[in-house]
Amino acid sequence: MNRDDFTGDNAYIRVTWDAAAGCWRFTPMQACATLMVGDWQALGLDAPFVPSVPRPAPQAFSQRDPRWANIRLGSSAYTMGGAGCAVTAAAMVASVVQPGITPLWLMEWLNVNFGFTGGGLIYWGKVAEAVPGLTFVGYHLWRSVPADLARLTLALHAGPQVIQVDFHPDTGALDSHFVTALRLLDGGEDVEIIDPWTGETGALLSLYSAPGWTLARAVYALAEFEYA
Ligand SMILES: [Ca+2]
To answer: 140 - beta bridge partners?
Structure first.
């Protein structure tokens, strides 16, 4: 259930989301007094009060970490350090629901479960197979059209996501690079990311954009995941 589906009122009761407490508040329209726990249990309204499980922040990883930098992606000639941005970004997403995960563990799982193409490209759905608690929603490609920022916003509402950017925005062709998107910045004009190249957090447009680019121009694709 989304908050927007529920927040509102009718003639009898007003429902609001208390972000600080992480739960719903039910207020009778007449008495204007907040119902107590016993009241909403008696009314069968206790289900929406269950606070969402707080998730840990994603762990930050660098694909060039010496613990895994030299391992090859599947049967390809590519190494994690040189071309493992996608699996590293996916491991950061997975760490939200599987805190002990590392890019090394995920890559080794993918290596024995046919998780990469012969050219070393990741099968995104395999990531969700490897990580209980993750569901792969789909791969949204915006290479020749502006990114659907409403879609990205909705996905980020669920949790961190993997997005594709241009590693060298000063050259015309796309130099594919995947990063972990955390949340919107500046009223939705930018996105905070963790960059697998460095393992550091930053703003997407300050890292991977050319002059004049908007966020919709800088995001080339979204590998969308849902969280259990
Ligand atoms: Ca480029």
So the answer is: 222
By the CB criterion, residues less than 5 angstroms from ion ligand 1 are 166, 168, 171, 175
Q: Is the pTM value of this prediction over 0.85?
A: no
CB–CB of 14/32 below 8 Å?
Answer: no
CA–CA separation, 91 and 192 (whole Å): 17
- Least confident residue range of 9-13, 145-149, 157-161: 9-13
Which one-letter DSSP state was computed for residue 48? G
CA distance linking residue 114 with residue 94, whole number of Å? 18
Residue 42, pLDDT above cutoff 80: no
Contacts of 124 (CB under 8 A, 6+ apart): 90, 136, 139, 162, 223
Give just the sign of the alpha carbon dihedral 114, 119, 128, 64. positive
Report the separation in Å between the CA atom of 165 and the middle of ligand 1, taken as the mean of its atom positions.
Answer: 9
In tens, the pLDDT along 119-139 reads 889 999 999 999 999 999 999
Domains, the chain, ordered by start: 3-49 (no CATH), 80-227 (3.90.70.10)
